[in-house]
Structure formats: C-alpha cells, structure tokens
Design goal:
alpha+beta
C-alpha cells in the first residue's frame, strides 16, 4: 500500500532534497536514518520532539505529528512519505536507479 500523503508546489531547484522528520529514540526513525546513511543520501534531520516548529510543520503538511516522515523536495513539487515501509521502498528505488 502506498502512503503518499500529499504533493505541494515548491520553488524550482536542480536537486532533490530529503528532510527526515523524526523522533530520535524511535526505532523506525533510526532504521530510516541508517538506510539513508548506508545509501549515502544527503538529508536533513528535523526532530519533532526537540523542536515544536518542526512538529507543527509536519502536522500542517500531513495531519500527523509522529515520525518518521520523509519530505522529498523535487523541482516543481514536494512529496511526503509518511510510512516507514514506503520510505525504505523509495530509498531502495533510488539505489536501484543509480
């Protein structure tokens, strides 16, 4: 099952940006961080327990305030992955394409 939550318009850029909204002590968040590291994908971490603004950002975008959630900013749009398995599937797909 695909849990893509929403697409929104974003400013045009030339590269894809990955932002991980997470709870540091969450096992699923740890697995996503480890996968990003193993695949050598650059990403920003936003800990939603340490920063209320990040939690509010996440809730506004996808109507949930738990992690992990991967925000993918591509030229022309933003994609949110809100389920651990969908995030890993997406990341593995990046590796397969490279």
């Amino acid at each position: 099952m695909n849990h893509l939550s929403q697409k929104t318009t974003a400013p045009a850029t030339t590269a894809t940006t990955h932002i991980l909204y997470q709870i540091h002590s969450c096992g699923y968040s740890t697995r996503v961080r480890n996968t990003l590291d193993q695949l050598d994908i650059r990403f920003e971490i936003r800990d939603i327990l340490a920063n209320d603004a990040y939690k509010d950002e996440l809730y506004t975008a996808v109507r949930r305030s738990s992690g992990p959630c991967l925000r993918i900013e591509e030229p022309g749009n933003t994609l949110w992955l809100t389920e651990y398995q969908d995030i890993v599937f997406y990341l593995e797909g990046l590796r397969a394409r490279s």
